Amino acid sequence: MLAVELKLEDAVKGIRPVDGEWRRRAREHLNNLAIPVGSLGRLLDIAEQLAAIKESLKPSVGKKVVVTMAGDHGVVEEGVSTCPREVTLQMVYNFVAGGAGINALAGAAGARVVVVDMGVAGDLKELVEQGKILSRKVDFGTRNMTRGPAMTRQQAVQALEAGIDIAGDLVREGAELLGTGDMGIGNTTPSSAVLAALSGLPVRQVTGRGTGIDDETLDRKVRVIERALAVNRPDPQDPVDVLAKVGGFEIGGIAGLILGAAYYRVPVVVDGFISTAGALLAKHIAPQCVDYMIAAHRSMEYGHRYMLEELGLQPLLDLNMRLGEGTGAALAMCIVEGAARVIREMLTFEEAGVARNKSREYAV
Ligand SMILES: Cc1cc2ncn([C@H]3O[C@H](COP(=O)(O)O)[C@@H](O)[C@H]3O)c2cc1C
Ligand SMILES: O=C(O)c1cccnc1
Prior knowledge:
Layout: H1 8-13, H2 20-31, H3 42-54, E1 64-71, H4 86-97, H5 101-109, E2 111-119, H6 125-129, E3 134-135, H7 153-172, E4 177-183, H8 188-199, H9 203-206, H10 215-232, H11 239-246, H12 249-263, E5 268-270, H13 273-285, E6 293-295, H14 304-311, H15 327-345, H16 349-352
Parallel strand pairs: 1-2, 1-4, 2-3, 4-5, 5-6
Helix pairs in contact: 2-3, 3-15, 5-15, 7-11, 7-12, 8-10, 8-11, 8-13, 11-13, 12-13, 13-14
Bound molecules: alpha-ribazole-5'-phosphate (RBZ) and nicotinic acid (NIO).
Nicotinic acid binds near residues 210, 211, 271 and 274.
């Protein structure tokens, strides 16, 4: 196992909220751009956030990396997905071949894709040795959470610290904008379980069709999650307990990546349902890390809206997407790039020699 550089508790202690004074300075600058005030809408909010995170009026997000975390789930044996478990491993090969959705959309955003084996139930040594993926394998898939905890508490911490560690490595290599992604057949089941455990919302309300299950399978999925919660009784006050009992290795890795992004003061674009389950865990571990998050899109997976509400985040896109892999994050990076260019490149009224008008910000 690779040495972990930063312990979870030290990372949590080191996460600072984004500086309000920098927010104010950025907003003042944005309000002076030669446009009707506020007319670039939410791009200005993102620009303000980027400037405050980077403590600069010229924030750069040129170097973008989407981290796609892969892991398998013992609960798949309960029949909660349309797909067999093997598809997780097969999709990792597809990522490496460049033929997946994330490859296409990361290409469009100019982002690098880093694939991490967090706990795939298969041998990926060959790809690791060839340097095509990273390995932070915690185990060969989680246990079936209807029979006991999905993983031990120690494994949950290991998954979180792996994510923090990867964020650190990427930032040291120059990454300026991180994105989260997931691959793991069955992983909408633990994601709904994490949301239900942390929010107290009824399981039925937060459980959706994942890859496209039928009504009968959806009913079973709800019962499976209810059983997992009843058997394990995760403590909503203890997010690491929730991750251990009803989470997944890639979900822990994603939560860790987000905590790491906040620790290293880099913005992180959060993808869809599974990634946002990770984000919710990260928030419960270190509330300030929300300042560093940008919600990419609203997934079609029904419960996603509740996760975004719990985080207080408004997604950038709403395109009926429900793939995961980091696809929504990659696409949203194009918008974040636009926001960065607005604050970096545009001139103020004074600089451009444009007469100031009397417009004011308004909402309809
Ligand atoms: C070919 C294929 C590629 C995928 N890429 C992402 N997912 C997405 O679907 C899975 C979650 O849905 P469920 O909980 O219903 O299994 C995850 O792997 C997620 O990343 C895929 C699913 C499939 C089948
Ligand atoms: O929103 C997602 O990320 C998602 C939804 C369904 C299936 N896989 C991923």
